[in-house]
Backbone:
């Protein structure tokens, strides 16, 4: 059997590498690519938090600045974003401070998204995030106008 190639069949390569690790077959390991794949998993966790923070903050802004347009789907989106962040943090404890690091950039992006989604001028929304990280992640928190 030939060894699957990382570049042409990632899934087969990953399954082969997992089997080699379990068998403690160091000679069969593609160490450099295995290390890269593991690093990618970590980066994906960070990206998931960043994406969900941006989504969450945009919806909190819309909730706050368009109270007459509130819908159950907005509330559901807010809850789902918080749940996704909580799930990542539950399994990656070392990232527990990451949301606080990412809020400033995520908020700037969310602010632009909220302006696009609502049609309101960008200046309508505060330049800096008006909520604490604890409030943003608190499953009970919904801002008022």
Residues:
């Amino acid at each position: 059997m030939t060894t699957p190639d990382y570049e042409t069949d990632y899934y087969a390569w990953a399954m082969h590498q997992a089997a080699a690790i379990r068998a403690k077959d160091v000679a069969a390991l593609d160490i450099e690519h295995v290390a890269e794949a593991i690093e990618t998993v970590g980066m994906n966790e960070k990206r998931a938090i960043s994406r969900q923070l941006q989504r969450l903050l945009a919806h909190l802004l819309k909730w706050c600045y368009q109270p007459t347009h509130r819908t159950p789907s907005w509330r559901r989106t807010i809850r789902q974003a918080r749940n996704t962040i909580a799930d990542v943090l539950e399994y990656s404890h070392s990232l527990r401070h990451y949301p606080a690091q990412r809020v400033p950039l995520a908020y700037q992006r969310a602010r632009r998204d909220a302006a696009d989604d609502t049609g309101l001028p960008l200046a309508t929304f505060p330049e800096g995030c008006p909520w604490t990280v604890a409030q943003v992640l608190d499953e009970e928190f919904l801002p008022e106008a």
